């Protein structure tokens, strides 16, 4: 979809929590990155969306197609504008967190992409796109706030 000269793009940052060791209840935030189809580096799943679907539905569809995971799409992390590296086109991208509840063995782009779970620090290193790193930082800030809120009111993450 094109909006005011910008191609509309939506995507997800798939994430999960992993226990850091067998005897610990401490969990570490991990994110799933995928290989770029045409370029170098790892990135988060994203793609175009059409008028017949919501941004959240499109983001979830792109994540299933490109990364082979499904889960709960959460509230928009924000909007970023960037210029395509290969074309003279500006994109307006909305990114959503996706709490992964299923990782598929087979998915549409399995033969085109590699996927890898990694820590936030590792993802910062391998992702070549500044706007995606900003979206990742927004996810980290939100998760830290949620953890503080849970501690304050005595609830736990589900």
Automatic annotation (TrEMBL):
The keyword Ligase does not apply. The keyword Hydrolase applies. InterPro entries: DDP-like_NUDIX (IPR047198), NUDIX_hydrolase-like_dom_sf (IPR015797), NUDIX_hydrolase_CS (IPR020084), NUDIX_hydrolase_dom (IPR000086). Its cofactor is Mg(2+); Mn(2+). Belongs to the Nudix hydrolase family. This is Nudix hydrolase domain-containing protein. Keywords: Hydrolase, Magnesium, Manganese, Metal-binding. It comes from Fagus sylvatica.
């Amino acid at each position: 979809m094109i909006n005011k000269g910008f191609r509309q793009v939506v995507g997800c940052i798939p994430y999960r929590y992993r226990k850091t060791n067998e005897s610990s209840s401490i969990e570490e935030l991990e994110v799933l990155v995928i290989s770029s189809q045409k370029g170098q580096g790892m990135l988060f799943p994203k793609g175009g969306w059409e008028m017949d679907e919501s941004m959240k539905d499109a983001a979830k569809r792109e994540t299933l197609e490109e990364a082979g995971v499904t889960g709960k799409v959460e509230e928009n992390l924000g909007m970023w504008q960037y210029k395509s590296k290969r074309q003279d086109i500006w994109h307006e991208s909305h990114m959503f967190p996706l709490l992964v509840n299923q990782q598929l063995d087979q998915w549409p782009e399995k033969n085109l992409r590699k996927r890898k779970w990694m820590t936030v620090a590792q993802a910062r290193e391998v992702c070549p796109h500044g706007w995606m790193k900003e979206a990742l930082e927004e996810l980290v800030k939100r998760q830290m706030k949620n953890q503080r809120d849970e501690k304050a009111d005595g609830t736990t993450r589900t």
